[in-house]
Write a structure and sequence with these properties.
Surface presentation of antigens (SPOA); single chain; alpha+beta; 13 strands; Chemotaxis protein chec; 2 domains
């Protein structure tokens, strides 16, 4: 997909120029201290360069369904998010948590949601319409994770707002937006890519806003039961080429684990565990075990022994809908 021209970027930036003051006010209210936002810097960044950093970020994924199905990402570095979490928790920012935990993310979610609301209002004021975030607005601490629409385009439009909390923090708030969403925000016509059929919905089920890509997770979602990655034709030649940009992430390591089963226990029962205790798992004997890739269910299989090591023989690749269901069960 062709990059936006300088004129297109300038038109896009005009939408966000008035937003800095609103963001500063929103953050100031959430942390009860004065925050100052500098003018935004708009650039176009390669997806390959963006997702190579495995460090976790405070990321809020959101969308504006009336403009595009594509998701966008609002980002703050983990150390800076820790300072904000300390301030929101009535600290002075001098003793941020060494590692963000769920309670800290919950504190920050309100501030991030307010930012997203403000972004929608700014866009709506610019185009003369109501622009509200979609229902799936989530904040979490993860390595940068982007929807498949970013990989399809090969690059992202980045809005970077340097901001500071006087005497406490100098940081940058970043927003990553797909080119299609950027064009919709700027009122530009959508550009059709002749190569989109090469990596269409069979490879990324659910469309551009579907499976995520990241330094940690993209290969785990790069293929599905419907994907047309057949290794060879009858004559021995490949029938499909890899989606554009996949070569940029093929060497990224993944955490692969095999899960025999799970069980919920009361704290008092966990404390009573001792050598010889038996924990009954919520899995029937003989039932396939789960193959997890970065904590997401990818496949099921059966245990095998290879020389002196355990292994797993894949018997089923989990469908995208089942993957989503498994995520829902874990969240519950």
């Amino acid at each position: 997909m062709p990059e936006l021209s300088s004129a297109d970027l300038a038109k896009f930036k005009e939408v966000f120029e008035p937003l800095g003051e609103s963001l500063a006010m929103s953050l100031s209210e959430n942390i009860n201290q004065r925050a100052v936002f500098e003018p935004a810097v708009v650039t176009q960044e390669s997806i390959g360069a963006l997702i190579t950093d495995p460090e976790p970020l405070l990321q809020t994924s959101f969308s504006f369904p009336t403009l595009s199905e594509d998701e966008a990402a609002l980002l703050v570095s983990e150390p800076d998010a820790g300072v904000l979490a300390d301030i929101i928790g009535m600290g002075d920012g001098s003793e941020p948590p060494q590692m963000l935990e769920e309670v800290h993310v919950e504190r920050l979610t309100t501030a991030m949601d307010a930012f997203v609301q403000g972004i929608g209002i700014a866009i709506g004021n610019s185009i003369g319409a109501t622009v509200a975030p979609g229902a799936q607005c989530t904040t979490s601490l993860v390595p940068l994770t982007l929807s498949a629409g970013f990989l399809t385009a090969g690059y992202a439009v980045q809005i970077a707002w340097p901001f500071r909390v006087e005497g406490v923090l100098d940081s940058t708030l970043r927003i990553l937006i797909t080119p299609d969403l950027a064009r919709a925000i700027a009122g530009l016509p959508k550009v059709e890519d002749d190569e989109t059929t090469e990596y269409g919905s069979d490879i990324f089920p659910g469309g551009p806003g579907g499976n995520p890509i990241s330094a940690a997770s993209m290969p785990a979602f790069g293929a599905s039961p419907g994907a047309a990655f057949q290794p060879f034709q009858a004559m021995g030649g490949p029938v499909e080429t890899m989606p554009r940009g996949m070569d940029l992430i093929m060497d990224i390591p993944l955490d692969v684990s095999v899960e025999l089963g799970r069980v919920q226990m009361l704290i008092k029962d966990v404390l009573e565990l001792a050598t010889g205790s038996i924990v009954e798992l919520e899995r029937v004997a003989g039932e396939p075990i789960d193959l997890m890739v970065n904590g997401q269910l990818l496949a099921k299989g059966e245990v095998v022994v290879i020389e002196d090591n355990f292994g797993i023989r894949i018997t089923e690749i989990v469908s995208p809908s089942d993957r989503l269901n498994s995520v829902g069960k874990r969240a519950a």
